[in-house]
Write a structure and sequence with these properties.
The chain has three helices and no strands. With 89 residues, it is an all-alpha fold. Helix 2 packs across helix 3. The protein is elongated and about 80 Å long. InterPro entries: Taeniidae_ag (IPR008860). It holds the Pfam family Taeniidae_ag. Keywords: Signal. This is Antigen B subunit.
């Protein structure tokens, strides 16, 4: 029984390897087609355009938030360093 399972697994692996070697061009074309469909969705579909605009707005908000956090951390570290200097005197 174990021998049959081992042989069937070996056969499945062999078929998978042979099929993978034979189909890279087809997979490449399929992937390129799907990427083109996604690009067209964001360029021409009204919902896709709204999603793209939301993405741009979200990116701008995240950049502003990052700057604010950076400013607050900079001030916090500066205050800590000043406290350390005051304590050492």
């Amino acid at each position: 029984m174990r021998t049959y399972i081992l042989l069937s697994l070996a056969l499945v692996a062999f078929v998978a390897v042979v099929q993978a070697k034979a189909e890279p061009e087809r997979c490449k074309c399929l992937i390129m087609r799907k990427l083109g469909e996604i690009r067209d969705f964001f360029r021409s579909d009204p919902l896709g355009q709204k999603l793209a605009a939301l993405g741009r707005d979200l990116t701008a908000i995240c950049q502003k938030l990052q700057l604010k956090v950076h400013e607050v951390l900079k001030k916090y570290v500066k205050d800590l360093l000043e406290e350390e200097d005051d304590d050492s005197k």
